[in-house]
Amino acid sequence: MNGIQQAVDKISDFLESDEKGLLLTGTHQYKKHKLVMSILNTSYRNAHILFRTNAMGNITNNSFIGIPCQPRPGQHVRINGNIYEFDAFTPKNTWYATAKQFDFAIVYPIDGMCSDSKYGPIEYLTEYKKIGKMLLCSWTDRLDYDYSELRAFYSRHVVYDAEEEDPEYHDRVLSCL
After folding, report:
1. Which domains, ranges and CATH numbers included, belong to the chain?
2. Which of 166, 156, 158 is nearest to 133 (CA)?
3. CA distance 133 to 128
4. Residues in the chain with pLDDT values less than 70
């Protein structure tokens, strides 16, 4: 079963490894990126983390991050002992507003890039930013997404499903796929 404990264990193991990229998929649509943030916020202090998302306006939504007010791209936001900077997939000018170096980058949700097979927001991170570890998180894992196209950006794939915590939700997500 791909529940929370195995996801925590595998993500923690990745963070302690020399690997650079992780892909996190599964039926927990709104909890995968929050699980990553929770692990980082528990395991690290003063880490510099880039959170690249599909739209800056989503950051204040509780399903995403739920911080009280929308930060400007590149603005430092302290969350549980770590320093986050946020930017968006588009417009690209948000990319230049963030620092050049980060301990971690979280990219969520990768779905739009997967549906179009356009990975510019991720490619830019590997080309122009110095990122210690990158964690790519999906929202809904559609059957037509070809995650192998992302293989250049990750070496480890972790699945975090809702089956243990909320079997009905898990089944609803699967039925939509």
Report:
1. 4-176 (3.40.50)
2. 156
3. 14
4. 177
Enter the DSSP assignment of 71. Answer: P
pLDDT for the residue 84: 97
With 0-12 / 13-18 / 19 or more C-beta atoms within 10 angstroms meaning exposed / middle / buried, residue 22 is buried
Contacts 24+ apart (CB under 8 A), 42-46: 43/12, 43/15, 44/81, 44/82, 44/103, 45/81, 45/82, 46/81, 46/82, 46/83
CA distance readout (Å), 79 to 46, 49, 83: 10, 10, 6
Where would I find the beta strands (DSSP E) of the chain? 21-25, 48-53, 77-79, 82-88, 101-108, 130-137, 156-159
